Amino acid sequence: MKLIMILSYFEAAPKSGVSVRIFEMAKNLVLLGNKVFLIAPGNDNNQVRINNLHIIKFKSPRYLKPLFIIYYLLKLGQRIIKEKQIEIIISAHLWSLLPALILKIGYSKKLVLDEHNVEFLRAIRMKSLKRLLFSFILEKGFANLSDSILTVSLLDKKALNNLGIQPNKIHIIPNGADTQKFHPNIDASSIRRKYNAESDPLVIFMGKLDYKPNIEALELLFQKILPNVLQQVPCCKFLVVGMNPPAHLNHKSVLYTDYVKDVAKYIAAADVAIAPILSGSGTRLKILEYMATGKPVISTRLGAEGIVIENGKNIILADDMNEFASQVIKLILDSNLRKQIGKNARELIMKKYDWRSIVEILDREVLKSF
After folding, report:
1. Per residue in 194-220, pLDDT tens?
2. Residue 273's closest CA among 257, 292, 256, 259?
3. Helix 321-333 and helix 335-352: axis angle, to 10°?
4. Is the pTM above the cut of 0.85?
5. Going from the N-terminus, what domains does the chain have, and what CATH number goes with each?
């Protein structure tokens, strides 16, 4: 059993893709026999214990939030290291790296940096100069001080290699899905009744809706995809699941849910899942969860980046939005095609992208090597 401390800049509650990866990693490391202390911001200062998973939360103020988060990660991390025999520190994102490095150097601990995205690459695609400068400094100047670095795909590993990070330090630990939570046999009839869509075709898109790549995807949905689909399938409805829906994008055929606790039921309620993503980096958890639930997915190539897929077999790829809409229509009208692609998608997730198997690789090939 290893004693592991995870420092997270983001909440431990799995409300977004980054939080899901952090929580699933912590949960499955415990299932593999380790003891994990996860320090993260939250709505209160309570400590939660789930078997050998200890979640230590702290409230951060609205103003100067980044500085206070770094301060609390450092302060609480120091306390846990002194009280427990911590062997390994995991910085659960690039934004947690500075306090993690201070603790690594101060207490001579092993440090693993989990790169959810290659942040400088994401900043370039999102055209964010401020994010680009900060992430470049951290990734170029400090990431190499970690003992190991995790990336979610071979593409991200190559990007970090090009930045000058030592290749022997980089391990590919992909994103995944909880295949027991997300599966094809979920009863979602209550969701269809709730939105008065018992017999209507239902297309789902989900994500944090104030995040730039998801806002761009929604704009494409409203401007390009929805009008074309409704011309051919006027009864189709679009279920948009996620926090902070934009007030300026509305249509009678679009159903906003805001934050929901059990996204699996909402995915299960849909006939088709979409990811018209044009920016960002890493791999999209939404696509893996769609596929784990046995849903046919239509995505841009960038949206499906980093996932080992076969176009036309377990996913459909389309970068042109007119073609994207045509593929949505095709799947709505062809139930056999929907079932076959969804079945193949589920098989891929079971084989390559189950969280338990992924974290087993992390435990065996990275953590146990220290």
Report:
1. 999 999 999 999 998 988 889 999 999
2. 292
3. 110
4. yes
5. 3-176+354-369 (3.40.50.2000), 189-352 (3.40.50.2000)
